Amino acid sequence: MNDQRGHQLRPSTITTRDGRTLRVRSLTATDADILERMFYRLSPESIYRRFFIAAEHASPELVRKSAQRLAAIKPHREAALVALADENGREEAIAVARFARLPHNPKVAEASILVRDDYHGRGVGRALLELLLEEARAANLERLIFLTHADNTAMIRLATGLGLPFHGRHADGLYEIHLLLQPQAVPEYAFIGTARG
Fold first, then answer.
1. Which CATH number fits domain 12-194: 3.40.50.1820, 3.40.630.30, 3.40.50.150, 3.40.50.10420?
2. Which of 29, 55, 109, 127 minimizes the number of CB atoms within 10 Å of its CB?
3. What is the DSSP string of the chain?
4. Hey, where are the domains in the chain?
């Protein structure tokens, strides 16, 4: 991906800590169905932490429309990667990582990652996020911003444990993490930490 147009990630693989191999490729509009199926494999806690909505408020229509919207990547401003596994003869989404450029600052993007609960603790999130960082650098981004609940320590450890300079701040029960991707870039503020990972 670059500033003018997008590109498809060359398919690759990641290996989980317990030795499973997952395929990774760019998300496409035809993936709405697997995103919808992935949603129904998430715990209520994961749904709340990622989508800021209670699971009981996620109607089938809302889930379907959200999956279609999330799969409809705008290549000039977004990128999304999906990690896949074959389960019972069908391709299923295990994790998704994405970024979207801010409208007012195309060198900065909001980013997110979601890993299915039964794959937590297997290194999938870190491996997929490292691939997303490669995409972000190729897109000439200077910063990625992650927004999560202030008590989501797993997400905070993941984002701040990548070996990149970062700045974090609390706001209204949420925690915002800014990762600096281009060390030569002049930050808008002084960073308060450097991740070790």
1. 3.40.630.30
2. 29
3. --SS---PPPPEEEE-TTS-EEEEEE--GGGHHHHHHHHTTS-HHHHHHHHSS-GGG--HHHHHHHHHHHHS--TTTEEEEEEEEEETTEEEEEEEEEEEEETTEEEEEEEEEEE-GGGTTTTHHHHHHHHHHHHHHHTT--EEEEEEETT-HHHHHHHHTSSSEEEEEEETTEEEEEEE--TTS--SS---EE---
4. 12-194
